[in-house]
Structure formats: C-alpha cells, structure tokens
Backbone:
C-alpha cells in the first residue's frame, strides 16, 4: 500500500503545480495617440514569449496569468 501512495502523491502534486502555471491567451490592438493601428510593434511577455502586431495593430499570445507585457517599436520611447 505504501508503494502505491508515494507515486499517487507525486502525481497529484505534479497536476497541482501545472494547474497553477496555466497560461491564458492575451489579445489586443496597439494604436497611437490618435487611435490609428500600429503594425510591427513587438509585444513580449517580460522574460518569455513574444509576437508582433499585424497590419491592423492586432496581437495575440499565450502567457502565464499576471504576466507583464512589454511593447516596443522603433521611433517610440519606452514608458
């Protein structure tokens, strides 16, 4: 019985840890101060995945919940 319990406990802990680290899909549109869409903007998760906005300024990526997104583009200052 003890030999069965240890693998079951390890398996349960593995599922618990993976559930806490689940990713969510984040999407949005990057635009300038006038509301015009910006294409080619780099959108990245701080320390993780990255993508670029399309011609309509739209982006989509997966990231862990509570992630920090970083937007960057040539000609725009970091804030």
Residues:
């Amino acid at each position: 019985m003890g030999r069965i319990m240890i693998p079951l406990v390890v398996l349960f802990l593995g599922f618990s840890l993976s559930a806490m680290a689940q990713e969510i899909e984040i999407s949005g549109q990057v635009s300038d101060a006038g509301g015009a869409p910006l294409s080619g903007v780099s959108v990245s998760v701080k320390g993780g995945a990255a993508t670029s906005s399309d011609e309509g300024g739209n982006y989509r990526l997966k990231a862990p919940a509570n992630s920090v997104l970083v937007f960057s583009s040539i000609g725009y200052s970091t804030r």
Notes: The mean pLDDT is 78. The beta strands are 23-29, 42-45, 50-52, 58-64, 69-72. DSSP finds one helix and five strands in the chain. Residues 2-20 form the longest helix (19 residues).
